[in-house]
Amino acid sequence: MRVNPESLARASSRHPWRTVGVWGAVFLVMGVLSSLLLSGVLTNKISFTNSPESIKAQNIVDAKFKTGQGADTEYVIVHSGSSTVHDPSFQAYVQQLKDALKSNNGDLFAASPASYYDVQQRSPDAAKGMVSADQHYLLISLPLTDDAANDSSAVDHLRDTLANTTADGFTTQLAGQAALNADFTTIAEQDAHKGEGIGIMVAILVLIIVFGALAAAMLPIGMGIFAIVVALGITALVGQLVQFNLFVTNIISMIGLAVGIDYSLFIVSRYREERTKGFEKLEAIGAAGATANRAVFFSGMTVVLALLGMFIIPTTIFRALASGAIFVTLVSIVSSMTLLPAVLALLGDGTEWPWLKRWANLVALLLMIVAAVIAAIALNAVGAPTFLVVLAGLAGFVGAAYLVTKIVRGQRSAFVNRFARHEIPIAGRSGGMWDRVSRAVMRAPWVFLIVSVGFMLFLGSFYFQLNKGSSTDIAQLPDVPAKAAFLTLTQQFGANRTDPVLVVVDGPATDPAVETGVKNLQAAIAQDADFSPQTQVQVSRDGSATQVSLFLKGDNTQNDASLAAIGHLRDQVVPQAFAGVSGVTVYVGGNSAIFYDFLHVTDTYQWIVLAFVLGLSFLLLLVVFRSLVLPIKAILMNLLSVGAAYGAVTLVFQKGVGIGFFNAIGFNFHQSDAIEAWLPLFLFSILFGLSMDYHVFLLSRIREEYDKTHDNTEAVAYGLRTTAGIITGAAIIMVVVFTAFASGRLGPLQQMGFGLAVAVFLDATIVRTFLVPSGMRLLGDWNWYLPKWLEWLPKMNIEGHEPDLEVQVPDTPAELVEANE
């Protein structure tokens, strides 16, 4: 058997229970794996696969200090409103805390916890930074191991110890990057669940409108949820080898709902279309496999190819986020081509249940929704894993549906009856709204082209004012424990101690020249307005390296001012302080320096990624459509969509335009000095793939008709009207899903969801409705131009060919009467 989309669909539909059983086992295994392992593989750290200066500094710290310094140090803030740090009661309580922390959490620490009193004995100057100006706040440093720093459960254990070790008049808070990451993870998971819930509910409504039947509407929803759970399990499994950024779960949820629903929507709609033409169930599945499944495969691969460009960038955050999106896209492709045909074979015309034009069936719909919500709320209340909550919701739908079938009868023939009464429109029928719109646009192509391109360019022009950095403002985060502790730390101690800048001197610490250089550095920092005057100096155990911890002022160590301070430190302060010191190498590291290098790497590689994605997309479209013009035009239109999305994100989040409006309707947007540094490249890859997705479906239908008629105008009108309903429904679902995630509380996810929603909306409206028909009308037959020297390219029919419908003509009048009956 030749393995292709059609053969996979036919094989799956002939052995439906076997196919469903295999995929069901995969679903359960991956669901269990994600529940048990996923939280342990998520991190908020930025890592590199090359070695910029910050990584060289970190390597020395890891090798020679081994104390979890820098980003791996948490702080316990001890406060008393009545006692000062000089009172015996204060010192006694601090000692009690240290003992409790060591006895309950000793395996989490790379070194023993150290309080203000411990540091004062060794270095009075360093101890000054561990007590507040009013003497009522004191710090206990907790150097964590690398494993503990990346494990949110470690933060829970520390907080439990603090909560159980109390004394009258004293309060404690846990501040640090690990605490922030743990609370970030919790917020991201909560927002992901909220986004999934909103997206699924709206998707159900949209699909019911598109299909007019609940069963057909639920199929794409189920496929989207299936893809998400399996992709999360794959991520948890692969995460045993490499760590993933904590936003990967949100990416999988967003992309999974978007492409999982869309791909299934295209296939189910094509199956129903083939049934309306008279194909039997298995033949209709095969016909859908030969056409829609092929389009899904090629469209999905354009998304994957676009995401592969992110692997060029030598940073783990891009590779991790791209991996999550690729996992869920591949699962969506494979399950749509195998599991979905098997389910269609089992359901048959049951996909048309219930016919929602009957009041009884509308009541059935409401009952099923209520049952699903009750089941999901009940499991969620007891803290069940997400995939079990989703399964309970789907089980509620199925259970209520079974009960209602006892009341509502006669649905088996509803599909045939509706088709006979022309209640199901036949694809390709002219005269509808989209047919009239496309022809109106093609009657005045220059007008629509100029106005549309002008608007997209105007919006995209704001990209050139985009400032890349970090949008994470601690003060704008939800009221989580880590936020309150972080603000206390910066307000009472005057600097961000949880995220120090590390100046690492690789050379003998006892060298008088090195000691002089360190003193020069401390003196320069004491006069620098960007840093706290207190510094901490630590010498490695073997005396071969020195680490100087510097503390940036303010609560954001990744904003413009902090990044400028890192650049000034590297370019001027450090070289001047260690001028004339030979035999040593000095590096500037720490999280702020890592982010500084991250921005430099992103700027360096963005053009390489751009060329890679555009080049691969051009080659793919060139082969698929055998046209030199169509790939260029599709790429230009997609770039317009992406550029407009950049401009919209810049206008709203950086310039604050419309924030009041969005917040008035339920969002929680905040203006920021910068857009997330990783966002533009990530948005480009995702949006280019998704935009090309629609182009492949639309252009394939246009090409299919052009090959039959060689009439460019009619082919464009045919392609638009036959895909308009499905693409519009798919676009609405995507926009709602992305908007739901933009309604979350974390700035990076707000920007990403908003940018994705804007781009898909513009692509499905302005680009598809105005730019495609006007551009193709003006180019005429040039759309299909292929130079003779490229005739050797292989011919690939992306839409495939549906099988011929066998029509049996009755031989006798008796057979004719029997056929009509």
Short key terms for the protein model shown above:
821 residues; Alpha-Beta Plaits; 65% helix; disordered C terminus; Multidrug efflux transporter AcrB transmembrane fold; 4-stranded antiparallel β-sheet; single chain; alpha+beta; elongated
Structure description:
With 821 residues, the chain is of the alpha+beta class. Among the domains are: 5-40 and 182-353 and 411-469 and 597-790, Multidrug efflux transporter AcrB transmembrane domain (Multidrug efflux transporter AcrB transmembrane fold), CATH 1.20.1640.10; 500-558 and 580-589, Alpha-Beta Plaits. Helices cover 65% and strands 6% of the residues. It has 29 helices and twelve strands. The strands form four sheets. It has a four-stranded antiparallel beta sheet with strand order 3-4-2-5, sandwiched between helices. Helix 13 (292-308) runs antiparallel to helix 14 (316-347). The chain is elongated and about 90 Å long. The chain starts with a helix and ends with a helix. Mean pLDDT is 80; it is low at 67-71, 356-360, 404-428 and 812-821.
